[in-house]
Amino acid sequence: MARIELDGVRKTFADAVALEAVSLTVEEGEFFTLVGPSGCGKTTTLRAIAGLSSPTAGTVRFDGEDVSDTPVEDRNVGVVFQSYALFPHMTVAENVRYGLRFTDPPRGLTADERVDELLDLVDLPGMGDREPDELSGGQQQRVALARALAPAPDVLLLDEPMSALDARLREQLRRAIKRIQQELDVTTVYVTHDQEEALAVSDRLAVMHDGGVEQVGTPVEVYERPETEFVASFVGENNVFSGVVADRDGDELAVDVGVTGADGDGAATPGANPTSDAAASGEETFRVAAGDAAAAVGDRVTFCVRPAALSPDPGHNRFPVALETTEYLGGITRLYGEWAGREIVLRLPEPPADDTITVGFDPADAIVL
Amino acid sequence: MKRRAYLRTAGVGAAALIAGCSAEPTGEDGSTDTPTGTTTGTTEGTPTLRVGTYTSFIDAPSTSPGAWVKEQFEAEHDATLEWFAPDGGIDYFLQRRNQGVTVDTDLYAGLTPENMVRADDNLQNGDSLFDSVDTGNIDNADHLIDEYQFDPQGRALPMGAAYISLVYNQNMLDERGVSGPETFEDLTTEEYRDALLIPNPQNSETGLEFLFWTINEYGEDGYLDYWQRLLDNGARILEGWGAAYGAYSEGEAPAVVSYSTDQVFADMSDADMAEHQIGFLNGEGYAYLEAMARFSDTDKPDLAESFISFMLRPEIQAEVAQRNVALPAVDNAELPEKFDELTPEPETVVSFDYDRLSGNVDDWLGEWSRQVAEQ
Amino acid sequence: MTAIRRRLEAATLPVAALSTLALLTLLFYYPVGRVLSEAILREGRLTLEPLRSVLADPFFFGVLAQAAEDPSVLWTAIEPHRIGPITYPFPNYKLGLFGFTAYQALLSTIASIALGLPGAYVLARFEFPGRKTIRSLTAVPFVMPSIMVAIGFIATFGRNGVLNTALTAVGLPRIELLYTLPIIVLAHAFYDAPLIARVTATAWESVDAGTAETARSLGASPRRAFVDVVFPQLLPAILTGALLTFIFSFMSFAIVLALGGLRLATVEVWVYHRVNQLDYGGASTLVTLEMLFSLVLTYAYLQYEARQRAESAARPAPRKPLFGPLNTDRVAVWAYVAVALVVFVTPMASMLLASVTGPNGFTLANYEFLVSRQLSAEAFQIKPLTAISNSLLYGAGSLAIAVPMGVLLAVVSTRDVPGSKLIDTLSMAPFAVSGVVVGLGLLQGLVFGTTVFGYRFTVTGAVAVVAAHAVGAYPFVTRNVAPLLATIDRSVVESARTLGASRFRVLLDIELPQVFAGVVAGAAFAFAISIGEFDSTVILASGSSAYTMPVAIERFIGRRLGPATAMGCVLLVVTAASFLVIDRLGEGRGM
Fold first, then answer.
1. What is d(CA B115, CA B290) in angstroms, rounded to the nearest whole number?
2. Of B314, B326, C31, C392, which residue is 20 to 30 A from C418 by alpha carbon distance?
3. Has residue B42 got a pLDDT over 50?
4. Helix (H, G, I), strand (E, B) or coil at C410
């Protein structure tokens, strides 16, 4: 088990910066997830931890010890790749045993005992003599996991291990990985682009974007208290608004989003002539809970409201949404619509009869970023 | 000196380790050490004479005089004879000299006039690969055949000769209803269309001397025209003597440019003599001359001279001629009648001497090859 | 203990890289460089004048050189041509020596592909007794000395050859092939078509049957499925073979002169001629141009190859039995077999026949000659058994050096390091440089020696021969291994590293077993190169007992070809047996 520290790790390739000065700490025994869209630098970070690529600048420490110059084979990490990467010319058992050529098995086990133990652990008992290409994708990935764990690594690194699997298998394997991780208590860094997966399995996660870390926290923190607009819209669905603080009353802000509201910020795209439309079709000033935000009158702020927080019931912050698409998700309906040139997402128990619905939200449900 | 001696020993040790690599100290001025004669060294008291030659003189599939010469020479002299036949023949030694490396060989046996001209043309400042031999010390020098002498500086002493001639297959010519070609012009007539194979003068001594022969016949202004007519009549120029003679043996053409000693070999293998007829064009044969010459940096000039003297003795000449299937270079060598019968001689002997060749060979060959290979 | 072992392993690759570099420098770049430097040095000064004057000489560059002088030649040279009743304008361009050389190389490449591809099809897609043996023997033509091929071809295609005898027997007219361009092209195909067949068959066997089946299920006819799906997967292998064939044919010399005569001269003929005249400057200029041409071609090819990295296959298609009811497929195959018998087998068979034929019919005299030579040869003469054992020893030694070297360079060339394509291209240089000049460089640089720090270092004899062979052979290993290596998933390699394996162990445990077929194919050709090599061997072995079988064959050529053909047959038998052994050994490992 090891505590991993990344200190200002930077990686540039010939023509582009892949990672800008990333600093992170992964605690011993923690299940830590790097999540973000493709190209965000999460795999580059994982490779830097593994020693598969050397950072242009910065240090990687395991338990306080600088391992930046330690070659990959001496770092005692286990890696599972998206493509399984089983050795095609070896049987399942030979694959799992491979790492034991270089390290003695733990607890005085023989190599064979260790292989059997791990095949049991990943629910593939007695499959040792199979060839990799006789196994299904899910089974192959379990073998890859067993192989990575066999030498009892200090750190387990999982690089999108489930992307190639179908949804059902993915959930099964996700639970298996989580169970095994808890059983072995091994420090684990998990890379995924799937925020739902990240929320489901992690002790903590780091949301990455454009080569940098946007936010680090527990799933609850990241979901409920996104710190940046990117996190707000990437982790779970969100409706993002931005505007100017017109008034401040203790913990509540009055934010004017209508007039000059959105001048190109991400989710809030201005309509052709938002001013008059907005004025005609709903409130332009929303009341939102300030939270920790120290915004004063005249400041520009962005806030978000989860789809589930928008409903026809609340008395404040009401605005009309022109509905466009409806998706029935089983027990709940997701609706996409438009208000003042902005795309709005709603979640309602049942779809409304009209193609326009007026919704509102409680100031406490808005999160100022 | 001590350090150097040590290094030398160390070098030898290392050489033993990687067998075939060696390091020898060179002189202070960067040029090579004073010549030590041979690299193989001398056994206690018995000097080694290293003689360069061409491979077929010592190792031909049919017959070669090398072994016999070595045995006889060693029986008479308190010396070891070491044959050395590098690929590339005389050019090997010339290149060594040009690179500033000792020649490490005492004399060369089998030198042609072209070789001598080439060696002189490619060395600077009148330097010579060979030095002249005092014929006063050569027992049988008076009997050397005059026509075979080609070096005006007296460095090369003739060792033997052969005649370049046509060899033709009368059985094949019978199918055409013609007899053997008798003149150069015959070869350009319809009767001898597609009839001749010629070794490439660029690669073979045989072909080169045939080229000289045509220059002798048609002059420097006319030989290219003759060759053009020859080629237009289907004559083929092949890689070398081996390729040409091989194709001839397979019946690809009824005639090939080769040697007048052909029937000796045919006799050895009981071949059909009709397939080994000798044709002297215009009654001539071009003399393929080979000589012996002593390398100028030998440290055993006397032993080298003894070897030359030995080689020119009539009985040795006679034996070497038979074993090498060539003609002796002295007029008092007695050959068996059968050998004489099998080696017909032309009415007229043609050959270019040193002065005729000097400075010309490259030009002739250059013009000729461009004309032939023109695409 | 593990720590020491790990440290040793970690050092293995860098040490191997340095040794490779040292070996290449000593036995290739230095000797060749010192000769080639004469192409751009005149009296100690750099000049491009010699290169320029060759480029501007119509003798060498034909219409290109003429057009540089006077572009009007490009249209004035267009003259009416006629096919039957049709007259059409066609340029009557002068090719020049380089143009002709490239032209005949192109024809040879096309012929080799035409003869090689059906062979690959038979080897990869059919099952028949002796298939593996025939596959192993495909490398045999490669070792044949040119003089032997010339003899075999004359006996097969000559005026009185097998082909013409057969034609006249059934009342057809003779075909005069000798001393024409077609016979040269055919002789090049004799050497190189088996190479293309073997390389392509290896690729074909690893084409996943699923891809063609998918195409069929989408409505493609078997032919369409082949053209659209299978062929593109074979293309990299075919082009590898084609590139090698083109370069070998471009550099061809002895076979061109022996079967075509000087009128069909190639650049290499001129190089040899210049070297014979001791005009090293002139030779170097030509060789430099030859080399640049070959290397540019190689570079262009490698760029293409890099884009063609396919995943290795899971399930090859099952083989069809060769013997069975005749259908169009089998009729075509049998027709090909007939052609292959004439082109590949007859020349070798006729050499065998020549070795047991004397003026008076059947004889064993030629073999008796070999035996008597063995028993009674002087120290300065060649003994057949020594030649055989030397050849085998050098072949094995060359393998031992060329395979690690070739694999190492394949690893370098497939890694995403800057300049890897350039390194890959340069690693092909031993194929791109004239054998004549390599020989000259070895003679001057190694046999005569080089003076360093007041000592003259010379390298000759067996060790030098083996090293020179290895240098000439390793590109085969690289070319066979690199494309396969490139198909291995990078994360497979990385997985092994994270499990604690050093880069060297990964190569040994993970990568090599997956590309073993390529290693074996490369090894077989490397062995063949060593066995057949003549130019360098004869120079480095000069005056010692380090000679090989091809040197012995050359020595045994006399008025009668018998002794040489007998030695040629010994060479054939010994190498054929060696190839069988190499492939059997290879089969035990690999996938």
1. 10
2. C31
3. no
4. helix
